[in-house]
Design a protein that fits this description.
This protein has about 350 residues and is of the alpha/beta class. It has two domains: about 240 residues, Ribonuclease H-like superfamily/Ribonuclease H (Nucleotidyltransferase, domain 5); about 60 residues. It is about 45% helix and about 15% strand. The chain has ten helices and nine strands. Strands 1, 3, 4, 5, 6, 7 and 8 form a seven-stranded mixed beta sheet that branches. A two-stranded parallel ribbon has the order 2-9. Strand 7, helix 4 and strand 8 form a beta-alpha-beta unit. Helix 1 runs antiparallel to helix 2. It is globular. It starts with 14 loop residues before the first helix and ends in a 13-residue tail after the last helix. GO terms for molecular function: nucleic acid binding.
Length: about 350
């Protein structure tokens, strides 16, 4: 796995920050490539994580002024075990391509916070995302393969800690979307890892119709130190929102009191992720069989396969190939959606 040299960003004029980003990329990718038998996977990845470490003093503590006005609550604070680890996740891009991944990880046992921004394919940060100075972490520039290796190692590292005596949970705002984005990078998050969605908590405790992360953070008086939208920033704000949402409740990490209320959410989440994984497999088959790589054309094929629906609806993988050929014949006969270059094998 080789480091791909590329332009880091076109909008930032902070050349020292660009140099730090390049050095960080070199350092971390070198660690990911290491096959030194003297270093276990866990210890070597912890060494990689230390590139992103900062002191956690005052980072995860209760705030007495949680809410004001009619929704004011008494802040009781969260009870964290000495081995508590909270992993906050946010992703950027669309359903077909993940452009960046952000993590903000609080590890109480190490009194550490790890803020990680993965920029994939040398993405140029737009004005909406903010220039380098608006990020809470120096970005790590990686290819999709490098991102897949890094994130897989990260979850593997914390899964090993969870098998010990650490209390680990994964947090996100609309977490299902972020997990689907990781699946497009061939990363599957362990099911044993407890998952908490701040969007669900928001609807349960405060706003039944829900709010996006930025609006919810402002309603909860979370101080905006950097702009919203970059993944690492949103991951950081998600942890702060989690704190505020649970400050007036009897919750502890690993959120034993939330398990019952999140039980149905977990079932629905894993069912949706299984269906999304099946869809990814179908899309891959469609691309292999047809040679089409345009996502809109692939969507058309799947739409014909599903009789107008965008969902696979319990496809038996044994019958997928005949369905693909049948869909292609339908597209070929369609007047409104003619499909050229149909494979001769059909």
């Amino acid at each position: 796995m080789h480091l791909v040299k590329r332009s880091l960003t076109t909008y930032s004029k902070d050349y020292s920050a660009l140099a730090r980003s390049y050095e960080l990329t070199q350092s971390v990718t070198k660690i990911l490539r290491t096959r030194d038998s003297r270093l276990s996977q866990t210890s070597s990845f912890q060494y990689a994580l230390d590139n992103f470490r900062s002191n956690a003093d005052g980072f995860f503590c209760s705030n007495q002024d949680v809410l004001s006005g009619p929704r004011a609550v008494v802040a009781q604070g969260l009870v964290l075990s000495d081995k508590a680890i909270v992993i906050s996740l946010d992703t950027g891009g669309d359903v077909h391509e993940t452009t960046d991944v952000g993590f903000c990880i609080y590890d109480k046992s190490r009194n550490s916070v790890y803020k990680i921004q993965l920029d994939i394919k040398g993405r140029k940060l737009s004005r909406k995302s903010g220039i380098m100075d608006n990020l809470l972490a120096v970005p790590l520039k990686v290819s999709p393969t490098q991102a897949q290796v890094f994130i897989t190692r990260l979850f593997g590292h914390y899964t090993q800690l969870m098998k010990g005596d650490h209390d680990v949970c994964l947090v996100g705002h609309n977490l299902e979307r972020d997990l689907k984005s990781l699946m497009t990078l061939n990363v599957n998050v362990p099911r044993a890892l407890q998952k908490v969605d701040t969007d669900i908590l928001c609807r349960q405790f405060l706003f039944p119709k829900g709010l996006n992360l930025g609006k919810l953070a402002r309603e909860l008086n979370v101080q905006e130190t950097k702009p919203f939208h970059p993944s690492v920033n949103d991951a950081y704000y998600t942890i702060q929102v989690l704190l505020k949402l649970l400050s007036g409740t009897e919750c502890d990490i690993p959120f034993e009191n939330l398990k019952l209320s999140h039980e149905e959410y977990h079932k629905k989440l894993h069912r949706n992720l299984d269906q999304f994984e099946a869809m990814l497999q179908i899309r891959s088959l469609v691309k292999d069989v047809t040679g089409f790589h345009d996502e809109k054309t692939v969507d058309q094929v799947i739409k014909f396969m599903c009789n107008g629906s965008k969902r696979p609806r319990d496809f038996d993988m044994k019958t997928v190939m005949p369905r693909i050929y049948k869909a292609l014949r339908k597209m070929e006969r369609s007047v409104t959606n003619p499909c050229k270059n149909i494979p001769k094998t059909i």
